[in-house]
Amino acid sequence: QDAIDRKEKRSETFKAAVHGLETDTPALKTEELGRRAPQWVRDNLVTMCMRCKEPFNAITRRRHHCRACGYVVCARCSDYKAELQYDGNRPNRVCQECFIFLTGHTVLEDREGKNKGILEKGAAEVSSRSLLCSSLQLLDKNGKGGTRGWFVIPEDDPLVLYIYAAPQDVRAHTSIPLLGYQVRDMPQSESRHLFQLAQSRQVFTFMADTEELKRRWMKAMARSAAGITDPEEEEDAGPCDE
């Protein structure tokens, strides 16, 4: 009975994970795993393993694809073989979760019970239920360079800005609590659409791709900075310096 309960729990967890992944084509349904070739997540959409969340690098942690679900995973998390029906029941490299689901076997390492930290929310899952999400650039202190990434304000955590390196990453690399910040406009120059978040001596400068996207972010951040969490509340109530 314990084995049955564990398998059912893993099945439900896997359904949620597969459903939450956004790719160019619909993700496989759980019952299709191993029976139909998956749509692979593109390498350039992730910067870390979609299972263990460790960053990829060119030497010690390279990218691999699970042949069952299509996730981009590291060698350690894909060091398993399972027979896949769509490939003539030949053994294929799969991730740990697919291995357990397809074979019913257990493994010594089990991260299922690990609680998700504040940064361990998948970008695709959060973006699908967000107040606003897009690519932005967070400039460094001299304003000449900085980090480009995927920025999200989730519906279920509307007072926090999550910053991902890529739109399919399974963990944010940092977050900024927005409550109490001032949103400042900056003059457009050299086709750069700039705005700032400022609180005391802490200042963040962002660059959007278009002026329209910049205005949308300023409005969303101003609402969060004012503590407005209900979409029905007045949108003009917020510390936004134009």
Short note summarizing the structure:
By secondary structure, the protein is an alpha+beta fold. The protein has helices at 2-20, 96-103, 123-128, 211-225; strands at 64-65, 72-73, 80-84, 90-94, 130-139, 146-154, 160-164, 174-177, 182-185, 193-199, 202-208, 240-241. It is elongated.
Secondary-structure blueprint of this entry?
Elements: H1 2-20, E1 64-65, E2 72-73, E3 80-84, E4 90-94, H2 96-103, H3 123-128, E5 130-139, E6 146-154, E7 160-164, E8 174-177, E9 182-185, E10 193-199, E11 202-208, H4 211-225, E12 240-241
Helix pairs in contact: 1-2
Short descriptors:
242 residues; alpha+beta; Herpes Virus-1; PH-domain like; elongated; disordered C terminus; PH_domain; zinc ion binding; guanine-nucleotide releasing factor; FGD2 protein; metal-binding
Describe the structure.
- It is found in: Cytoplasm, Cytoskeleton.
- Its main location: cytoplasm.
- Residues 43-103 form the FYVE-type domain.
- This is FGD2 protein.
- With 242 residues, the chain is of the alpha+beta class.
- It has an eight-stranded mixed β-sheet with strand order 8-7-6-5-11-10-9-12.
- α1 (2-20) crosses α2 (96-103).
- It has helices at residues 2-20, 96-103, 123-128, 211-225; strands at residues 64-65, 72-73, 80-84, 90-94, 130-139, 146-154, 160-164, 174-177, 182-185, 193-199, 202-208, 240-241.
- It starts with a helix and ends with a strand.
- β6 (146-154) and β7 (160-164) form a beta hairpin.
- It is built from four helices and twelve strands, in the order αββββααβββββββαβ.
- The chain has two domains: 33-114, Herpes Virus-1 (2-Layer Sandwich), CATH 3.30.40.10; 123-226, Pleckstrin-homology domain (PH domain)/Phosphotyrosine-binding domain (PTB) (PH-domain like).
- The model is unreliable at 15-26, 108-115 and 234-242 (pLDDT under 50).
